[in-house]
Amino acid sequence: AICRHGCKYGECTGPNKCKCFPGFTGKTCNQDLNECGLKPRPCEHRCMNTHGSYKCYCLNGYMLIDGTCTSSRSCAMVNCQYGCEEVKGEIQCLCPSGGLQLGPNGRTCIDIDECSTGQAVCSYNRRCVNTFGSYYCKCQLGYELKYISSHYDCVDVNECVTNTHRCNLHAECLNTEGSFKCKCKQGYRGNGFDC
């Protein structure tokens, strides 16, 4: 089976036919499936979509016990943003994702910027993009995601060919890894942007 455009989060099962891994959709399995929008809804109360998955959490006043939301007076009194749990007889507020942490008030959840804390792991040619509760890795500027020799990789964009350079009319464009250079043509002088 050959899939010309590849299957990003899935496997090729027939000529240009992808079978997506759970949590992904699209012709090339390159889109995140929003499980929170599915019918029947996957969560009892609230749902938070994540990259390739989802997280369930309870409404305020409910406690998560063995995967179900149970009404709790003590939980309602604490007034948590995303429900709570009982730990050693004490009520603690919950955050639905590891990329969130309890704020100073102990009730609301704030985002952890994995890109600036160094928790994010992206390969050398990708940059980190923070999202609420998580992060993802994107190609560095000057590179684009392409399907080459049976896998996705970040490859150099040739700005001279795609005509996305800003070289002067009297300059020639020279492609470089991840960028480009401009050089004034013979008989002209300048920095290549002004000749």
UniProtKB/TrEMBL annotation:
Species name: Caloenas nicobarica
Source domain of life: Eukaryota
GO molecular function, one term: calcium ion binding
Domain EGF-like as annotated: residue spans: 32-70, 111-149, 156-194
Keywords: Disulfide bond, EGF-like domain, Repeat, Signal
Protein name: EGFL6 protein
PROSITE patterns: ASX_HYDROXYL, EGF_2, EGF_3, EGF_CA
Pfam families: EGF_3 (PF12947), EGF_CA (PF07645)
